[in-house]
């Protein structure tokens, strides 16, 4: 929801390994609606519980569990504060990240 800012949401790191080009492209396009691509197959997503569920529903309909790998890591508030960034910053829609937080590059 638009009234929620990154400070009010949880950070999730979503990564995937999908050998099929068509499925991989579909997953990437689905995730673009929920977060920011930080590496070829890695997204940072600031989500509330409702949007986390929506994102999982959408992506799990695309992947084949016997062929693909999808990982969703919840990054707690304490861990967000100690993350390190090396290299170029991530360009989130609202800037480099929530106030007081360094952007993450994995």
Helices, strands, pairings?
Blueprint: E1 10-17, H1 21-32, E2 36-39, E3 42-47, H2 49-60, E4 69-75, H3 77-82
Antiparallel strand pairs: 1-3, 1-4, 2-3
Strand order of the largest sheet: 2-3-1-4
Question: Mean pLDDT, nearest integer?
Answer: 83
By helix and strand content, what is the structural category?
alpha+beta
| Helix percentage | 25-40%
What best-fitting shape do the alpha-carbon axes yield? globular
- Number of contiguous helices: 3
Report the sheet-strand fraction.
Answer: 15-25%
Radius of gyration, taken over Cα atoms and rounded to an integer in Å: 14 Å
Q: Calculate the terminal CA-CA distance, rounded to whole Å.
A: 26 Å
What's this, in brief?
By secondary structure, the chain is an alpha+beta fold.
Question: In words, what does this structure look like?
Answer:
With 106 residues, the protein is of the alpha+beta class. Helix content is 28%, strand content 24%. It is built from three helices and four strands, in the order βαββαβα. A four-stranded antiparallel sheet has the order 2-3-1-4. A hairpin with a 2-residue loop joins strand 2 and strand 3. The longest helix is centred in the N-terminal third of the chain and has 12 residues. It is globular and about 35 Å long. The two termini are 26 Å apart.
